[in-house]
Amino acid sequence: MLNKYARAFFTRVLTPFAAFLLRRGVSPDAVTLIGTAGVVAGALVFFPRGEFFWGTITITAFVFSDLVDGNMARQAGVSSRWGAFLDSTLDRVADAAIFGGLALWYAGGGDNNALCAVAIFCLASGQVVSYTKARGESIGLPVAVNGLIERAERLVISLVAAGLSGLQTFGVPSWIGVLLPVALWVVAVGSLVTLIQRVVTVRREAAEADAVASDGADGSGTSASSAGSSENGAV
């Protein structure tokens, strides 16, 4: 849902900045690489130390590169399969760094094995959710469902909660720290639901496609048999 509405809004907002970078000779691929490096650094430097506020600020500053690089490619007329592949691949790297950083915190200073496991599940399920759609489309299925929680929702829920939890550093009451654990559980459950939705959809679409292919093969076989009978009759 956020992909549908928020992406269109931020694309319009960031268009002038994308044009500025193009005029300075910056390539879309460079923006993709720099953005991913910034997200990874923010997640793995700050989150494992429990510095959620500054980690979130750093990640947020770089995460918009995911919109800027595509905007630049469209403006420059250089959209390519390679660019799409690189962008999608590095998105997975960035996501893994965010949830990996949270898992490291709970495995260390956060001292909560249950939440460490939840963060790892968020990491893994997010990767698999993305894979199901990509794999389904690669075998010719439309995968006509987005699901309950997509990448945008996973990031927004997790980063907003992490940033607010980090406000404890500035004297905000400690109860606000409960937002991050709640957010991780929400993302975990939502990702599981989304995974099930996509798997069920792919199963249905695969069955329909196989049925159509089978009907086509049967029809071709019948036509061939009929043609053979006509030829035999003519002889």
TrEMBL record:
<keyword id="KW-0594">Phospholipid biosynthesis</keyword>
<feature type="binding site">
    <location>
        <position position="74"/>
    </location>
    <ligand>
        <name>a CDP-1,2-diacyl-sn-glycerol</name>
    </ligand>
</feature>
<keyword id="KW-0479">Metal-binding</keyword>
<feature type="binding site">
    <location>
        <begin position="29"/>
        <end position="32"/>
    </location>
    <ligand>
        <name>a CDP-1,2-diacyl-sn-glycerol</name>
    </ligand>
</feature>
<comment type="function">
    <text>Catalyzes the conjugation of the 1'-hydroxyl group of D-myo-inositol-3-phosphate (also named L-myo-inositol-1-phosphate) with a lipid tail of cytidine diphosphate diacylglycerol (CDP-DAG), forming phosphatidylinositol phosphate (PIP) and CMP. PIP is a precursor of phosphatidylinositol (PI) which is an essential lipid required for cell wall formation.</text>
</comment>
<comment type="pathway">
    <text>Lipid metabolism.</text>
</comment>
<feature type="region of interest" description="Disordered">
    <location>
        <begin position="211"/>
        <end position="235"/>
    </location>
</feature>
<dbReference type="InterPro" id="IPR043130">
    <property type="entry name" value="CDP-OH_PTrfase_TM_dom"/>
</dbReference>
<keyword id="KW-0808">Transferase</keyword>
<keyword id="KW-0472">Membrane</keyword>
<keyword id="KW-0444">Lipid biosynthesis</keyword>
<dbReference type="Pfam" id="PF01066">
    <property type="entry name" value="CDP-OH_P_transf"/>
</dbReference>
<comment type="subunit">
    <text>Homodimer.</text>
</comment>
<feature type="binding site">
    <location>
        <position position="87"/>
    </location>
    <ligand>
        <name>Mg(2+) 1</name>
    </ligand>
</feature>
<dbReference type="InterPro" id="IPR044268">
    <property type="entry name" value="PIP_synthase_PgsA1"/>
</dbReference>
<feature type="binding site">
    <location>
        <position position="69"/>
    </location>
    <ligand>
        <name>Mg(2+) 1</name>
    </ligand>
</feature>
<feature type="binding site">
    <location>
        <position position="87"/>
    </location>
    <ligand>
        <name>Mg(2+) 2</name>
    </ligand>
</feature>
<feature type="binding site">
    <location>
        <position position="70"/>
    </location>
    <ligand>
        <name>a CDP-1,2-diacyl-sn-glycerol</name>
    </ligand>
</feature>
<keyword id="KW-1003">Cell membrane</keyword>
<comment type="similarity">
    <text>Belongs to the CDP-alcohol phosphatidyltransferase class-I family.</text>
</comment>
<keyword id="KW-0812">Transmembrane</keyword>
<keyword id="KW-0443">Lipid metabolism</keyword>
<dbReference type="GO" id="GO:0008654">
    <property type="term" value="P:phospholipid biosynthetic process"/>
</dbReference>
<feature type="transmembrane region" description="Helical">
    <location>
        <begin position="178"/>
        <end position="196"/>
    </location>
</feature>
<dbReference type="InterPro" id="IPR000462">
    <property type="entry name" value="CDP-OH_P_trans"/>
</dbReference>
<protein>
    <recommendedName>
        <fullName>Phosphatidylinositol phosphate synthase</fullName>
        <ecNumber>2.7.8.-</ecNumber>
    </recommendedName>
</protein>
<dbReference type="InterPro" id="IPR048254">
    <property type="entry name" value="CDP_ALCOHOL_P_TRANSF_CS"/>
</dbReference>
<feature type="binding site">
    <location>
        <position position="66"/>
    </location>
    <ligand>
        <name>Mg(2+) 1</name>
    </ligand>
</feature>
<feature type="binding site">
    <location>
        <position position="80"/>
    </location>
    <ligand>
        <name>a CDP-1,2-diacyl-sn-glycerol</name>
    </ligand>
</feature>
<feature type="binding site">
    <location>
        <position position="91"/>
    </location>
    <ligand>
        <name>Mg(2+) 2</name>
    </ligand>
</feature>
<keyword id="KW-0460">Magnesium</keyword>
<feature type="active site" description="Proton acceptor">
    <location>
        <position position="91"/>
    </location>
</feature>
<comment type="pathway">
    <text>Phospholipid metabolism; phosphatidylinositol phosphate biosynthesis.</text>
</comment>
<keyword id="KW-1133">Transmembrane helix</keyword>
<feature type="binding site">
    <location>
        <position position="66"/>
    </location>
    <ligand>
        <name>Mg(2+) 2</name>
    </ligand>
</feature>
<dbReference type="GO" id="GO:0000287">
    <property type="term" value="F:magnesium ion binding"/>
</dbReference>
<keyword id="KW-1208">Phospholipid metabolism</keyword>
<dbReference type="GO" id="GO:0005886">
    <property type="term" value="C:plasma membrane"/>
</dbReference>
<dbReference type="GO" id="GO:0016780">
    <property type="term" value="F:phosphotransferase activity, for other substituted phosphate groups"/>
</dbReference>
